[in-house]
């Protein structure tokens, strides 16, 4: 099995449920406050590790109580953390999440995730490049994402870049990654001149995989556009479903699945994860996904 390195964020998610999302200037009553480990990087690492992947996380947490809990959570899920830093006098990343009306809103305070600097990554370069597959997102400084993509491409690694949350990304970075995995909203931001998804997928020639929420995922594969329908799920919370998709996709590539099978596997994993509150709580193990895939 190939090795996976995740370079990304680690957050503590403060999650509440509400009947509906507040309007501007409005206060609504919530319930069920939970402190749940999250962060797009950590979520993707846990998703891949829970499936049985060989996963090493590169990132930073603070020297607060959350930092300790977040590292422990990664380790308990089988993610290697020996290259992660605890940053003195710094808070760990926090995400304030409201779950209402079958959807969520998130405010992220990056804290120690800002310390995943180009300098840290240069120091970690040899360790990161021991992996075969490198998985990235946008919750660390963009220049750090750019540097990692550049180094990984030079080293001939498979790079999966989940450009979330949405920010404009240089075309040269998009062209260097092996798989770019935006959702529809991120796709519109990254490819503003292209409004036909099928044409765009064909032009990107297999390097673009677009997640479509309840419509599943689409990609260009074996000379044609394929759309993998979403799993029918009893949705409780979609937080982390995209992260589960990316982590499971990385796991599938690490095990040399053909792309269409990898996408089906990732879609099922994401659907299962949405049946539980919290980003990581519902992430499935290998047997659960494989049984449905059969
Ligand atoms: O993708 C979901 C994640 O986004 C949450 O876990 C939260 O930490 C935010 O970063």
SSE layout:
Blueprint: E1 3-7, E2 11-18, E3 30-38, H1 40-50, E4 54-58, E5 60-62, H2 65-76, E6 85-87, E7 93-100, E8 103-109, H3 118-128, E9 133-136, H4 142-154, E10 158-161, H5 171-176, E11 179-180, H6 184-190, H7 197-204, E12 209-211, E13 217-221, E14 224-228, H8 241-254, H9 259-273, H10 286-293
Parallel strand pairs: 1-4, 1-9, 2-7, 5-6, 9-10, 10-11
Antiparallel strand pairs: 2-3, 7-8, 12-13, 13-14
Helix pairs in contact: 1-8, 8-9, 9-10
Bound molecules: alpha-D-ribofuranose.
Short description:
With 294 residues, the protein is of the alpha/beta class. 36% of the residues lie in helices and 24% in strands.
What tags apply to this protein structure?
about 290 residues, about 35% helix, binds alpha-D-ribofuranose
> What's the helical proportion of residues?
25-40%
Q: Let me know the average pLDDT.
A: 96
Judging from the principal axes of the Cα atoms, what is the shape? globular
Q: What amount of the residues lies in strands?
A: 15-25%
Sequence of secondary-structure elements: EEEHEEHEEEHEHEHEHHEEEHHH
**Biggest sheet overview:** 5 strands, parallel
Uncertain spans, ≥5 residues at pLDDT below 50?
none
Ends distance: 21 Å
Number of helices: 10
The count of DSSP E runs of length 2 or more, i.e. the number of strands, is: 14
- Please state the CA-atom Rg, rounded to the nearest Å: 18 Å
Give the strand order of the largest sheet, numbering strands 1, 2, ... along the chain.
4-1-9-10-11
Overall structural class, as computed from helix and strand content, comes to alpha/beta
Bound molecules: alpha-D-ribofuranose
């Amino acid at each position: 099995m190939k090795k996976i390195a995740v370079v990304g964020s680690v957050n503590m998610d403060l999650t509440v449920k509400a009947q509906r999302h507040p309007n501007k200037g409005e206060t609504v009553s919530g319930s069920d406050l939970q402190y749940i480990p999250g962060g797009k990087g950590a979520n993707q690492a846990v998703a891949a590790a829970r499936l049985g992947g060989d996963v090493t996380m590169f990132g930073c947490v603070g020297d607060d109580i959350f930092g300790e809990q977040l590292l422990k959570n990664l380790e308990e899920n089988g993610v290697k953390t020996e290259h992660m830093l605890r940053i003195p006098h710094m808070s760990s990343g926090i995400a304030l999440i409201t779950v209402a009306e079958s959807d969520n809103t998130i405010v992220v305070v990056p804290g120690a995730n800002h310390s995943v600097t180009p300098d840290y990554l240069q120091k970690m370069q040899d360790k990161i490049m021991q992996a075969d597959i490198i998985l990235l997102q946008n919750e660390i400084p963009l220049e750090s994402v750019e540097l990692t993509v550049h180094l990984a491409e030079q080293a001939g690694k498979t790079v999966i870049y989940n450009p979330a949350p949405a920010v404009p990304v240089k075309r040269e970075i998009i062209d260097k990654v092996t798989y770019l995995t935006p959702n529809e909203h991120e796709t519109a931001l990254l490819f503003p001149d292209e409004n036909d998804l099928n044409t765009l997928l064909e032009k990107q020639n297999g390097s673009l995989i677009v997640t479509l929420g309840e419509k599943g995922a689409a990609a260009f594969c074996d000379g044609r556009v394929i759309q993998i329908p979403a799993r029918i799920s009893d949705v409780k919370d979609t937080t982390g479903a995209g992260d589960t998709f990316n982590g499971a996709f990385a796991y599938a590539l690490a095990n040399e699945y053909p792309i269409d099978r990898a996408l089906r596997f990732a879609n099922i994993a994401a659907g299962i994860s949405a049946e539980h509150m919290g980003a990581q709580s519902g992430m499935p193990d290998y047997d659960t996904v494989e049984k449905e895939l059969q």
